[in-house]
Design a protein that fits this description.
Blueprint: H1 13-21, E1 31-35, E2 43-49, E3 55-60, H2 75-90, E4 98-102, E5 107-111, E6 117-118, H3 119-124, H4 132-144, H5 154-163, H6 167-176, H7 180-183, H8 196-204, H9 207-222, E7 226-228, E8 237-240, E9 243-246, E10 253-255, H10 257-277, H11 282-310, H12 319-346, H13 352-355, H14 360-379, H15 387-397
Antiparallel strand pairs: 1-2, 2-3, 3-5, 4-5, 6-8, 7-10, 8-9
Helix pairs in contact: 4-11, 8-14, 10-11, 10-12, 10-14, 11-12, 11-15, 12-14, 14-15
Length: 404
């Protein structure tokens, strides 16, 4: 009964919880706890046995947002636990192992991947991550296609759409990615004053851009294509050698596959523009450019192969339909990539890749390059067929004069 009602852990009560509730450490273990979370929603604790150095992670949701103390439903926590369990079955090499989920305490108990390093910080340090394009595309293809109703039983899929409805997390994305960066209607955008005129012209006053983004928002809200991660950026990917681990699918729901793919590509663009601006090692820059192109191209090869292997419905086995289906994912990828680029520059949820550019003049140029790239990806999304198209657009845009 002690843990039948939710309360928020601290570093003392969580040790008591581990001893009384979980059968993970030995009875005589000397346990220590530290809170290591840095997100806006959840609390993350690392529990360590001092004697054996064995560790686990406990991620707990509260009934209030960590960042603002605003009330929030707890379903995202339940969804995250279930998605990680699903990933553990279909892409187990790419996620931490889940030991236990406590629905009363809203706590996910999982493997500690402390030997893995945050990908965003790894790239900021100019480190090449071998086989990244291969790994991330395998994760996306293998975790999404099997959850579509061109593969899964349509009755089960429809039940799953209901099971994974994630209203509050989706609303956050609908506002922060597809609405506020293009209108600032809630007055929450954070913009460098030197870029305000540029942003007003390129974003707020571009009615055609706003029209195209509305189409992408409509697809995000209504295209229940597959179970997607929903927040797949370089901060939720961890790396060790040529291995990766994916965490934090708390935004997961049934949406367009291209959203995940586009989000990954966009976040590599942040690393690439940072590398350009700061004149980082040419080998690192070349690797990033090649990796961005390979992600698009590898995805196509793997997706179409898995499609042909797994789709049995006679209607969907039609080659023209298969190519049409893939082509729509590619359009979503480019459009969502563009929205992610713009919202991380203009919105209030920024990335350190850009905010840590110390020279204000360099940061102004970096932001303008990213905004122009984002616009191009959105407006030209029907024409971006190959990975090299993305890199070529960036290459051309960064040659423009952004000094005035």
């Amino acid at each position: 009964m002690k843990y039948s009602q939710h309360f928020l852990f601290n570093t003392e009560t969580i040790i008591t919880y581990v001893r009384e509730k979980l059968n993970i450490f030995k009875n005589n273990s000397k346990l220590q706890a530290e809170e290591i979370g840095d997100g806006n929603i959840n609390y993350v604790f690392r529990i360590r046995d001092v004697n054996s150095n064995k560790t686990i992670i406990i991620k707990q949701a509260d009934k209030l947002l960590r960042s603002s103390s605003r009330p929030i439903e707890s379903k995202h926590n339940y969804i995250e636990a279930n998605v990680l369990r699903l990933y553990g079955e279909v892409v187990k090499d790419y996620v931490p192992k889940i030991y236990y989920y406590d629905p009363n305490m809203l706590a996910i108990i999982m493997e500690d991947i402390r030997d893995f390093k945050n990908l965003r910080l790894t790239l900021l340090n100019g480190k090449i991550v071998s086989k990244f394009a291969d790994n991330i595309t395998s994760f996306i293809v293998n975790s999404t296609l099997i959850t579509t109703d061109i593969v899964m039983d349509s009755f089960v899929k429809k039940d799953n759409v209901s099971k994974y409805v994630n209203k509050e997390m989706c609303k956050i994305t609908e506002d922060l990615v597809f609405a506020e960066p293009f209108s600032n209607y809630k007055n929450r955008n954070i913009v460098l004053k030197d870029n305000l005129t540029f942003i007003e012209k390129e974003l707020y006053k571009d009615t055609n851009l706003i029209y195209e983004v509305a189409k992408l928002k409509d697809s995000f809200m209504n295209n229940s294509q597959a179970l997607i991660h929903g927040d797949l950026h370089t901060g939720s990917i961890f790396v060790k050698g040529d291995k990766i681990k994916i965490i934090d699918p708390e935004f997961a729901f049934y949406g367009p596959i291209g959203y995940d793919l586009g989000c990954v590509v966009a976040n590599l663009f942040f690393s690439l523009v940072n590398a350009y601006i700061n004149n980082k090692n040419v080998n690192f820059i070349n690797w990033l450019e090649r990796t961005i192109a390979e992600i698009i191209d590898f995805f196509k090869i793997k997706f179409l192969r898995k499609y042909q292997e797994n789709v049995l419905d006679i209607s969907f086995k039609n080659v023209k339909f298969m190519n049409w289906y893939y082509d729509n994912i590619l359009k979503d990828t480019a459009g969502c990539c563009g929205c992610e680029l713009i919202r991380r520059v203009v919105g209030d949820s920024k990335v350190i890749d850009i905010t840590n550019i110390g020279d204000i003049n360099k940061r102004i140029i970096a932001e303008r390059i990213l905004i122009k790239c984002g616009k191009t990806f959105i407006l030209e999304r029907n024409n971006l067929k190959n990975g090299s198209d993305y890199v070529e657009i960036l290459s051309n845009i960064k040659k423009e004069d952004f000094s005035s």
